[in-house]
Amino acid sequence: MSSRSQQLTPQLTNTDEAIRIMRMPEILAVTGYRSRRYIYTLVRNGELPPPVKLRKGGRASGWPAVAVYEFVRRMEVDPLARPVKPVGGSI
User: What average pLDDT does range 13-26 have in this prediction?
Assistant: First the structure.
């Protein structure tokens, strides 16, 4: 890697990670889930915060990276706390 390309590569810091927004494909990759619908179920159940709009009045939204990584850490510490997908109809 040349010194010029090293100068152009930003160094991530905790501050960068704190303000970074993750879009749905990245959340699916990080969590290991394959369903957009299930991510929104986690939001509805309070496991993940609701997404934030990236532009006022826009359609694009994402989640703060810190919240997603915190969710993943909770699942690593206590895998039994992982929300379970309901099987069948209502109770």
Answer: 79
**Rounded distance, CA 62 to CA 55, Å?**
11
pTM here is 0.64
- Give, to the nearest 10 degrees, the angle between helix 65-77 and helix 24-31: 20
- The answer to whether residues 33 and 75 touch, using CB atoms and an 8 Å cutoff, is no
pLDDT score at 8: 41
Which residues are registered as beta bridge partners of 61? 53
Q: Phi then psi for 13, rounded to 5 degrees?
A: -125, 175
| Separation between Cα atoms, residue 7 and residue 12, nearest integer Å | 13
Domains of the chain, residue spans:
14-78
Q: Are 52 and 64 in contact (CB under 8 A)?
A: yes
Third-level CATH fold of 14-78? Multidrug-efflux Transporter Regulator; Chain: A; Domain 2 (1.10.1660)
